[in-house]
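Suppose you are handed only these lines of text.
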Amino acid sequence: MRRKLAAGNWKMHGLGESLAQIAELAGPAASVDCDVLICPPATLIERAARAAMGSAIAIGGQDCHARETGAHTGEISAAMLRDAGATAVILGHSERRADRAEDNRAVRGKARAALAAGLMPVICLGETLEDREADNTLDIIAGQLAGSVPEDPAGKPIVIAYEPVWAIGSGLTPSPDQIARVHGFLRDRLAHRFGRSMAEATRLLYGGSVKPENAATIFAVADVDGALVGGASLTARDFAPIIAALDAA
Ligand code: PEP
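From them, the structure of the protein bound to phosphoenolpyruvate can be written out as follows.
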């Protein structure tokens, strides 16, 4: 019942020439039974949406402001992303939680704004190495989930991305059992809060050093509905085999 999703987070990478990667990905994206989402930097969203037009690739933002409009220099609203051609937005990425001190409350406000503007929020959460070593992973995840997901998504789809902070960009990944434990826990917490049918409909992505070499192992884990991919989403050469592995899982 859940359609698998391969989402790419380009972070602060990409100039106009990077749009060629989207064109190159159009063929592989058309031949799989999965959703494919690319989240380029804001400067490329409109051009990326144009490059992806007519293909199976959707375009998303990497952040949005919680307010609709106002005196917030340098910020971008959810409606602006939508207007530029985005259909989704990554929220609460650990880099923003760390660099911009975004807490769960801020992430929830942004998620509400995204839903109101018709964007699908991809809400990120994950423990630090310190949390994991102190055996606090599930407590941290529970707090982030409770605080970051809006009270009433009103039947609109949200996506949760479990991204252990220590796995992002490090080449390290949790074991399949560790991923299964967190994803099973997330599904249960969602069911407890929103009911079983919402929990069963919500896609749970794993993120953190997903590469062509480890994708099949990660996608075989129970309750993993796809991936949020950073570095390996920057080129079609690396992202296409990850999408193919998801399709085959
Ligand atoms: C990310 O930034 O969301 C991410 C998972 O990065 P990487 O795949 O490079 O670890």
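What can we learn from it? Residues 9, 163, 168-169, 207-210, 228-232 surround phosphoenolpyruvate (CB under 6 Å). The radius of gyration is 17 Å.
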